[in-house]
Amino acid sequence: MPKIKYNQAFIEVAEDSILLDSLLSSGNSIPYSCRSGTCQSCLMKSESKNLPTKSQEGLHPNQKIQGYLLACQHQVTEDIEVCMPSDAGLDIFCNIHSLKLLNDNVMQVTLKPQKPLTAEPGQYINLIYNNSLARSYSIASIHDDLIELHVKNVKNGRMSNILFNYAKVGHEFMLRGPIGNCFYSNQHHNNTIILAGTGTGLAPLWGILNKALESNHIGDIYLFQGGRNLNDLYFVKELENLNAKHNNFKYIKCLLDENNPLEHNIEKTINLFTNKSGIYAFFCGNPAIVSSLKQTIFLAGVSSSKIASDAFIMSK
Predict the structure, then answer these.
(1) Cα dihedral angle (278, 279, 280, 285), rounded to 10 degrees?
(2) Which segments of the chain have a pLDDT < 70?
(3) 291 within 8 A of 267, measured Cβ to Cβ
(4) pTM over 0.85
(5) Can you tell me the distance from the alpha carbon of 153 to that of 164, in angstroms, rounded to the nearest whole number?
(6) H or E element that contains 19
(7) Yes or no: is domain 186-311 CATH 3.10.20.340?
């Protein structure tokens, strides 16, 4: 039977066991969230040089070379030694700089990393508490070495409960990342950009929008913010002010029901353009809505290579 070496201890496991499950069942505290390999909360480091492709799927090439793997995706077929990214110097300690309610269910959490973090607004990081609880949050802004996140108050959510009810300015967390390709770059500068999302899916879109406007974006920008009612929306005044200030930016509020899905609003806008090749799209939030939006815009003629998305998968 293969053995796992972790924290100077050896754990004997059945062949093909999942690394994360084996470590957890042995009493170890390992951060994890989605269990699907998407959020990368369960990232670990190994000295093994021939890791399975599935164990490293979605990781940066440099991380693959350094032996990082996703514990929820790694099947143990032979002896392996692993450690936490914090032990390998990958994680960054940070402190809460401020906490502010944006509406009844969304908290603006601003973090101050203890060392510089290179990231783009729109990407996401893993926020880690007590080296055991991890959740993924999109970066809404990075200014003056401060990182802004938007956190939804999830019923029975372990991390959101801590942030809404217990966290104070100065409290220490760890962060890992950044991850993801939802961010603005020079290739978008002259093109039409369509941004759409629901709930805290606005966080990465807010980051992308402001980066584009700060970069004097030339093309048109459309932002569709979806919610079941007005109370679901936030940053409405800020978005309306940007709409009034910038001729190339249009903000569209969408109160969603079966007669007015977000997809219909976006399809109407796309159909205004005879040439779809100059359109880039970013979709964030509810996984079902994100999937539907991607299909809608692809069928309307936008290349899949120009569609970026970040579906907010619930933790398990």
Answers:
(1) 180
(2) 88, 257-263, 274, 313-316
(3) no
(4) no
(5) 7
(6) helix 19-25
(7) no
